[in-house]
Design brief:
Keywords: Hydrolase, Membrane, Protease, Serine protease, Transmembrane, Transmembrane helix. By secondary structure, this protein is an alpha+beta fold. 39% of the residues lie in helices and 20% in strands. It is built from 19 helices and 21 strands.
Length: 529
């Protein structure tokens, strides 16, 4: 006991000193389990950013450093885990929601002025009387013309809260003075179903460009329209569809599959499995379906194609799909930004993953398209590389493969005449759209008495119009563009663009598809049934 009494003051002193030292290091906003644990990796990152913000010799935008850091981390995970900066969140949310609040016009900036290409059918501008060719000069007293005005600023002035009103001043050719319109803003759909029409007396066609919140509702309306027109078979076009919401893909697959058929299952890092089955609500379970896919059909598009193929429902037509079998969840980062993080893999009903490898890095992953092109896979199905160890069998005895996309039942090579680089460049840069708009500006009334279907079936684009397009390119293109070998294809694009600007709502697809070899193949398959 004397020994303990002798050293007690020393022990108490050390304990008090240690307590003061530890207390100075603690953050009392932390939870108890963090008080006695550290994460040196997180602390290192936070400390580095603090050093740069407070001690670095020059002023640095640390927000941009954080963005770079987040992107760098995600780049080392997988190709589909992505960062969404806060300035992009509104746009991304609109695209996925499938609508926005606005005045309902399709426009582009023509000679520093907003030129209306078309007022959206039944939208607020159409109801107010705004027409294609009108120039919107002012909105609530603010000018909307001039070289310094950017498209983003224009859109901000035309958007607003639902049911709010905006006063527009509009120039219309032939009118002696500016016209006044008051437009009440409303919800404007961002269409994810581009077209729904009949290819033959029994074969309907519906094209889905992405899987947004509104897609199933649009799809259902399209299917009902086609059934009313006598469709007993459906062509579901998922070409160039990058995907979207998993649940929407499940709903669309459900329309074609019998009750209790497995649509897909997902598995996370802990091995937890969630299965999705078809319900009794499918309205096209008895009809035949052809699903069109290509090298740009990804994610949710592959879910639909894989679910139907693995259940021996219908026919998959086209080329091997993209090969994305990862599921992302959007997670808020607290400052208005978000991350879409891969949280599981999905598998088709037979148990195959169609995710292609990404272990060589993101660059190799995204360059795989060019490898497919170089080895001739887009022209010859025998050039498709398959892994025999990833072979699966459907209930009907069909052999299918995992490891990288959905391989179609019926292969259709890429059509180089309609998808060559020159035509793609002209379409992507808006040359067709701008040229057609200027042609319509000369005299829109030429087309007033031509019904939509008559135009689609019978209208011929003259050689003179093609030569005028060449002259137009010579004046405006950055480099010389010639299309001597694609004269007829250019005619088709001009006609399709004319149809779009005159009639909207799927007219482009109806015209363009008249020269589509994959559509021709589907019609042939349908006639053989």
């Amino acid at each position: 006991m004397p020994y303990q009494k002798k050293y007690l003051p020393l022990i108490l002193g050390v304990a008090i000193a240690a307590g003061i030292f530890i207390g100075g290091k603690l953050d009392f906003t932390d939870s108890p389990d963090r008080l006695f644990s550290t994460n040196s990796k997180k602390d290192k990152l936070n400390r580095l950013i603090d050093y740069i913000e407070y001690d670095y010799v020059d002023e640095v935008n640390t927000d941009s450093i954080v963005d770079i850091t987040v992107n760098g981390i995600l780049d080392n995970l997988d190709p589909h885990s992505v960062y969404i900066p806060k300035e992009d969140m509104a746009r991304v949310a609109e695209e996925m929601k499938g609508d926005f609040v606005g005045i309902g016009v399709s426009f582009y900036t023509y000679r520093d002025t907003i030129a209306v290409i078309r007022a959206i059918e039944n939208g607020p501008s159409a109801k107010a009387g705004i027409k294609g060719g009108d120039r919107i000069i002012m909105a609530d007293g603010d000018t909307l013309f001039g070289n310094k005005l950017k498209d983003g600023e224009i859109i901000k002035k035309l958007k607003g809260s639902k049911n709010s009103k905006v006063k527009l001043k509009v120039y219309r050719r032939g009118e002696p003075k500016l016209l006044d319109f008051t437009v009440k803003r409303s919800t404007i759909p961002i269409k994810s179903v581009d077209a729904a029409y009949m290819l033959t007396d029994k074969l309907g066609y519906i094209k889905v460009n992405r899987f947004a919140e509104s897609t199933y509702k649009e799809f259902k309306a399209g299917i009902e329209k086609l059934e009313a027109l006598g469709a007993t078979e459906i062509t579901l076009d998922l070409r160039n569809n990058p995907g979207g919401f998993l649940g929407i893909a499940e709903q669309i697959a459900d329309e074609f599959l019998e009750d209790d058929k497995l649509i897909l299952f997902t598995k996370n890092k802990r091995g937890n499995i969630e299965k999705s089955f078809a319900t009794e609500k499918g309205d096209f379970e008895d009809g035949n379906v052809y699903v069109l896919i290509d090298e740009n059909s990804a994610s949710a598009s592959e879910i639909v194609a894989g679910a139907l193929q693995d259940n021996d429902k219908g026919t998959i037509v086209g080329r091997r799909s993209y090969g994305k079998g990862l599921v992302q969840r959007e997670m808020d980062l607290g400052d208005g930004s978000a991350v879409r993080l891969t949280v599981s893999r999905y598998y088709t009903p037979t148990g195959r993953s169609i995710q292609r490898p990404y272990n060589k890095g993101n660059k190799d992953y995204y360059d795989e398209y060019f490898e497919r092109l170089d080895r001739g896979e887009l022209l010859d199905p025998d050039k498709i590389q398959v892994d025999d160890s990833l072979k699966f069998t459907t209930p009907g005895g069909k052999i299918v493969y995992g490891g990288g996309g959905i391989i179609p039942d019926v292969f259709v090579p890429i059509d180089n005449s309609m998808q060559n680089e020159t035509l793609s460049y002209l379409l992507r840069r808006g040359f067709f759209g701008n040229f057609v708009f200027e042609e319509l500006e000369k005299d829109r009334h030429i087309y007033d008495d031509i019904p939509r279907q008559e135009f689609i079936n019978n209208f011929k684009v003259s050689d003179d119009l093609v030569f005028a397009f060449q002259d137009y390119l010579n004046l405006r293109a950055e480099s010389k563009v010639t299309f001597v070998a694609y004269h007829d294809e250019v005619k088709q694009y001009i006609k399709a663009t004319l149809a779009d600007q005159l009639y909207g709502a799927g007219a482009f697809e109806e015209v363009y598809n008249q020269r589509d070899i994959m559509i021709d193949e589907v019609i042939k398959l349908s006639e053989e049934e």
